[in-house]
Structure formats: structure tokens, C-alpha cells
Amino acid sequence: MSVWDGFKDAALGRSLVERIAERLDALGATERQPVRLMEVCGGHTHSIFRYGLATVLPPALEFLHGPGCPVCVLPMGRIDDCVAIAEDPRVIFTTFGDAMRVPGSRKSLMQAKADGADIRMVYSPLDALALARRNPDREVVFFGLGFETTMPSTALTVLRAEAEGIANFSLFSQHVTIIPTLKAVLDTPGLTVDGFIGPGHVSMVIGLRPYRFIAETYRKPFVVAGFEPVDVLQSVWMLLGRIAEGRPVIENQYGRVVPEDGNQRARAAMDAVFEERERCEWRGLGSIDRSGVRIRDRYARFDAERRFSVGGAVVADPQACQCGEVLTGTLKPWQCRLFGNGCSPETPVGALMVSSEGACAAWYQYGGARRGAA
Amino acid sequence: MCLGIPGRITAITDPGAMLATVDVSGIRRTVDVQCVAEPGRPLDDLIGRWALVHVGFAMALVDEEEARATLALLETLGEAEAERDAMRLTADLDRGEAA
Prior knowledge:
The structure holds 2 protein chains of 2 kinds.
Chain A: H1 10-27, E1 35-41, H2 42-50, H3 53-56, E2 61-68, H4 76-86, E3 91-95, H5 109-114, E4 119-121, H6 125-134, E5 139-146, H7 151-164, E6 169-175, H8 178-186, E7 195-198, H9 200-206, H10 212-216, E8 222-224, H11 229-245, E9 250-252, H12 264-273, E10 274-276, E11 279-282, E12 286-289, E13 293-295, H13 304-307, H14 323-327, H15 359-367
Parallel strand pairs in A: 1-2, 1-7, 3-4, 3-5, 5-6, 7-8, 8-9
Antiparallel strand pairs in A: 10-13, 11-12
Helix pairs in contact in A: 1-11, 2-15, 7-12
Chain B: E1 5-14, E2 19-24, E3 27-32, E4 50-54, E5 57-62, H1 64-77, H2 79-89, H3 91-98
Antiparallel strand pairs in B: 1-2, 1-4, 2-3, 4-5
Keywords (chain A): Iron, Metal-binding
InterPro entries (chain A): Hyd_form_HypD, HypD_1, HypD_2_sf
Protein name (chain A): Hydrogenase maturation factor
């Protein structure tokens, strides 16, 4: 089976690969001195692996798999707090299924559920609100995680809970924001990134304006991309063009979904409900200033962190874990000492192995035979 | 969760609460449509439109061709089935809400 079989338009894919190769040649990029592009979003990571893009592109191009999978950057201390809340017998703890297997220092939510905690997987925060209406004698807590893609949904759910006067619903916010995260990547010593494949659905919410500093201050090109393999290839081609011209700009390859100004209503809801946290812990990356959000005082009664006394302790990543080096692209997933050696999608040690959008899980699933290629 | 899934808006179930029924590959689900409501236009104008749905919220209107291409992509990535599973898992809750 050819890599191209999965393409909706294989001819376009092939032609883009040829044109990318020409631009790489013109730039003088080589396998030893490749152009390094970071895809920020885990959705792109998944697509790149699933379609084997690294194998069809010349080795003079290197993808760095960025920190944009919210499940993969969940620190153990926050999972511990969730488990502690969930173990309160008054509580029905609700979460997206993705978070169930992320290890905490004591146990994952999955293990806590097996041990008797009332933990329920939901599709939407609206399901958690429905549970709260139906169970007025219980405390229903929703575990809100994700970047600006999912942040509006939890903000709007809090606003709905307030409008309806639902008193037994609260939110545990582990939402993170993309801009401080990108700044942290750009400020990482020793990390060279020549350009960014920008997140599609975060940008659908926040628009393009917030990224301007990347071009203006850091002089890097940034292309917001769709998730089809040809979208990714076209974005790579665009980025190489800007690199060749020495003209860093913020561009939108995914205009069919991403409006220039984002989604006003979603942004307004996020602004109403959330405010910056001074510090936010990330698995593998440590603390990143102002990269997380918490619930504003006005909505304090919907804040699970205030309703339940949680430890809030910072728990160090497992010592053997090298998630941080993988997240910043200094190690390939398979170069981690735990990769396939105690850490696998079935028994993840690091969160990059938990989600199919994590670089390690994607590599494990699709990349085994392609070690030399990317 | 992050990639969302396209669905077709088939009915406005509660205009005051801005809730609609969306058909996602044959699964019907109540979805919040306030982020795609067009100011000054009746919500009924959304009926028949395709939207990208993230965790129960319509976040962007897309054309049918884009919706179908995205569905095909999500099938390949295995994400479409995961989304449908999550929707099925809470179908009881959702029906309770719609009723």
C-alpha cells in the first residue's frame, strides 16, 4: 500500500512534495542541517504520522512535534487533585474520556473509578450540566481541559449554569492558552524552529491577530493549517517560501474554517468567565507563566478548586520520563529511554503516550518502521 | 475532542437556549449553536447548514464539501468513531435534555 492511497488528491500531494523539495534545495537545507518546522497542534501530529508525511518529504525537512496536545501536558499534580475531588462521596466527577488514563502520582482517574469513585465519561460539558440537574443532591464537577478550542464550551456551560441557577455544578479548570505556550517554545534555549504550522481550531476561536508577535518579534513565519495531509503539505510549502524570502508573516491556509478575527461570541464567553493564572504547571515543560486560566471571582461558586479543598501540589514528572525533551523536539519519541520500555499506549508513563495526538503514541502506532525517516 | 466533527443542523429545539439538533453521521445530538448564530437573523436559518461541532458546541459553519472531506479525514484518523462513541455514551443524558 502506498502512502498516497490515503490522499483525497494524490496528484496534488505529489506535486506539493516536489515543490517542497525544490524549495528545500534552493534553501540549501540538508539532512544534517534541515529546516525545522514545528506543528503546534496534536491534530497535526496525528495527521503527519497517519499519512506518513515525514516519509514522503525529503530528510532536509524536520517536523518538531509541539506541545499542543492538552491531554499530553497534563501534570500529575492536577490529576491528583481531580482524583481527590472524585473520591469525595458527594461528587459525580465528569471528564472527557481522553483524560481517564493520564497517570497521577497515586492513580489515574480510570484507577480511581475502578476503586469506586463515581467518575463518568461525558461527551460535552453540557452532559455534566444535565447530570447536575438530575442529581440535585450530588455535586457534579466537570474537568475542563484543552486550549482555546474547548475553552469556549466550558465557559458557555458555566454561563448557562448561572443563568439557570444550577448550584451543584462546578468546573475544574485545566485550560491552557496557546500564546504563552508558543512564547515558551520560542524562548527555549537551544531550540531552533524555523517556522510554525499553526493550530487550526484554536485559531478558529482566537483568530490570527494574537500570533503577530511571532513574526514581528521572533521573525518566524506561521501558517494556520487545516488537517488534511494536503493542507499540511501546502502549509509547509508556504512556510518554506516565507523563509526563502526572509519575510516572516502570519498566514491562514485554513480560511474555510478560520476567520481572521476568530469567533467573537466564543472569545467573549472565555473573557467573561476566565482570567489568567500567574503560573501553570505543564507535564514535561515545568511551569509556564500565565499559560493557564482560572475562573474569575464573579463565578467563584462554579469553581471546583474553591469548592473543594484540593492539595494543589506540584508533583514532579517521573524521573525516567523525558517528555520535556520530546515536547521541545530535542529528542525523538523513540529516543526516550522509556519508549516501548515500560511506556506504551496501554501502560503510559508519560502523557505523550496517552493520547493518539501525543507524539509518542503516534510514533508508537505508526512510526515503528520509520525511525530513520523523520 | 480537539478535532471536533462536522454535523448537519436539522432542527432548532430550544431557540431561547440556542440549542439545536445536529445529525452527526446518523447520530442525533443536542448542540449549542450560539457561536454560529448570525446576529439579527432567525436561528431557523441554520437548519440544513453544516457545522463543525466541538464537544457539543457548533463552533464554525462549513460548506457541505468541507464537511464531507473532514468526515472522511476523521474516519481515517479513527477520530470519527471516537467522537460517535462519546456521543452514544451520553445519549441518555442528551435525550433527557431534549425532552
